[in-house]
Amino acid sequence: MQPTVTLLGAIERDLAGAMRDRGFIVSDSDLNVAIASHVAGTKGPDVFVIDIRALSALPREIVSLRRHFPQSGIVIIAKALDPTSMLDAMRMGVSEWVAEPVVLDDLETAIRRMARPTLGAVAGRAIAVLGGKGGVGCTTVAVNLATALHRATREATLFVDLHTAHGDASVFLGVEPRFSVLDALENIHRLDASYMKGLVTPTKAGIDLLAAANRPQHGAIDALRVRALIEFVTTTYPWVVLDCARTDGTLMDALDATTTVLVVANQELATLRSASRLAASTRQRCGVQRVKLAINRYDTESEIGRKDVERVMGGAIAYTFPSDYRASVAAINKGEPLILQDHSRLAGAFEDVARDIAGLGPASRDAARSGGFFARLGGRR
What we know:
Layout: E1 4-8, H1 15-21, E2 25-29, H2 31-40, E3 47-51, H3 61-68, E4 73-78, H4 83-92, E5 96-99, H5 104-115, E6 125-131, H6 138-153, E7 157-161, H7 169-173, H8 181-186, H9 193-199, E8 201-202, E9 208-210, H10 223-233, E10 239-244, H11 249-253, E11 260-265, H12 269-286, E12 291-298, H13 306-313, E13 319-322, H14 325-334, H15 338-341, H16 345-357, H17 365-369, H18 373-377
């Protein structure tokens, strides 16, 4: 079945016809009239193509389209690649931007990429893991969470190392990737299931890895490309875990495409101050319900207790991971996630959190009686 497209505000009379020649089912209308009629209806098209070349600014009605039709893609046709406008568009829910001169091949690629999620693709979930400060063990949490999700659900899981350079996930997973996340971002127009399969590296943990690059990135990464990558991989994998660099503003702007943001901190004052700012800005961008707080290397005897942490962070702690330095280092040196080789409390905590995220419940009654994570969910402290 060919994608259905609603073309809004086209300044070229033959654009709709040219798109029909490409096999699309196209309806076209005046921008304001079409938006009003679609919002009043019951079903939107696979893709809205909005031509803003005759406008001085992005139409605010895009927000209404996204709210009423979350499954419809939105493609913008603009005069130029304006970074400010593109960022505003991304925040409204736009993932594709085509600039003059309009090349029909590029427009067709953008439309088919946006239509793909509505044509029987996987509706995956993306979990972003952010460290409140360097050294909190963010990659350890992310790698073990991804592995635990795969083991608990038995579903395909992708780990994306969004530290575009100098990421360490490949070391944690004991592999030497040929390709990286930069290859995906630089070739975002080529992404399909076959191309992605060639970029990822299978691991003995059972998850696929899209690794950080071993080469420098020239210039800033386009936020729209990062968002498009996240949206694409969730159409091909049921579970995606993103190890994010907290200092990269581009990645922060792409968090709207995730379903859960896990902010990781520990019980150190400097870390908590940094993490509290990160959590506040992430809640403002993504909403309170999507942001979860996790404390790594949790120490019940610490001078900074649970209530102190929650007061500083401005919200409840969702998850805690006990400290086990020796087991963590041994797992890294072996190139194998800790959860595969260890039966410690830390490994059990990763399993419990993964099962909670997947909605599966505790692994056993013993885990619930132990006073661990699920006991805390029930109100025991």
